[in-house]
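Hi R.,

Here are the chain sequences for the assembly we discussed:
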Amino acid sequence: MQYRISQQAAALSPSLTLAIDAKAKQMKAEGRNVIGFGAGEPDFDTPKHIKDAAARALAEGFTKYTPSSGIPELRKAIAEKFKRDHGLDYKPSQIIVSCGGKHSCFNTIMATCQPGDEVIIPAPYWLSYPEMVKLAGAKPVIISTTDATEFKVTPGQLEAAITPQTRLFILNSPSNPTGTVYSPSELKALGDICVKHHVLILSDEIYEKLVYDGAHHVSVASFSPDHYAHTIITNGFSKAYAMTGWRLGYLAAPEPIAAAIDAIQSHSTSNPTSFAQKGAVAALTGPQDHLTEWLQEYAKRRQIAHEWLNRIPGMTCVNARGAFYLFPNIAKFGLDSRTFCARLLEEELVAAVPGIAFGADNYIRISYATSLANIEEGLRRIERFARRLAG
Ligand SMILES: *Cc1c(COP(=O)(O)O)cnc(C)c1O
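And here is the predicted structure of the full complex:
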């Protein structure tokens, strides 16, 4: 039997991160002492008051369909969060609760992009963006950046990539995989270019709470009514509340775009899980002090890992200003990132993600969402591996 796979599905690349992760898990199951730097999720548990709220909702029988774009209570709490954190005014009808921040990005791209459209994505990028754009039948246009500019795209680069077909610019600050955080003036300059050329901005702000060195996250939508009118903000509960398995995210968009996304969602997933939404209300309206503790811990790990990586002969690593990743440069070792990571796993039992997965083959991604003990042992092994490669 010959199965015809749709053009859109056949165009997708399978996830490299998953392949590495599967191999590392298999090795662990075989009893080998693998150190995992591949994780894209916090190693902390969901705060108790959030779990309690969801458990209560479940016990009370809150187990039926909800409105497809989320319960009013949660959409209101999200609107209040945008006001509180960014001074942004959204009506609950402009907020869509989805099954994860990833789903919010997907819905946004589906609602705004079609065949013939171009979407500008700075590299290194989160690996799902180009695949989502291809699924919509549109064309990803990649702008490359390097560690020499802290992986920041300039307004000049952005403007040069814009054509009459450009529909969307995808911005992810703080960034996965680099940890880059744009300054407010840099963000505004990029936003100005998009406003000038009537290009929409998908601003993925999932790591907004994870910033270091006293930095404060600013949303590109907050600079002017024009910036607001051009921006769709996506966010979620996975990173700031350690709720990756709950599958809950949200977006805020201009009214007509939110209405289109509401329709898409009503015919695909329908509502995100009912009792999980009650947990999310508790997340937004309850105490936020877990974040202070997590940030201190992440900051300590980041400092140790960043200093250690830069001490390894041949390796250089710009410091991350947000998220929980470092993105060291491995070009001097003369291996492509896939070979580098495969050998690192094989020879030293350390799992890291090859930069090629993010459109940047000279780098590897190290997640420090793991214990200090793991970080120290993993870096000891990476150093031994690097010294052996350098001969
Ligand atoms: C983790 C992540 C998301 C969303 O994750 P969900 O679990 O789907 O909420 C979105 N964008 C980036 C860049 C991420 O790293």
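The pocket of pyridoxal-5'-phosphate is lined by residues 40, 100-102, 126, 172, 176, 204, 206, 236, 238-239, 244, 249 (CB under 6 Å). The chain has 14 helices and twelve strands.

Let me know if anything looks off.

Best,
T.
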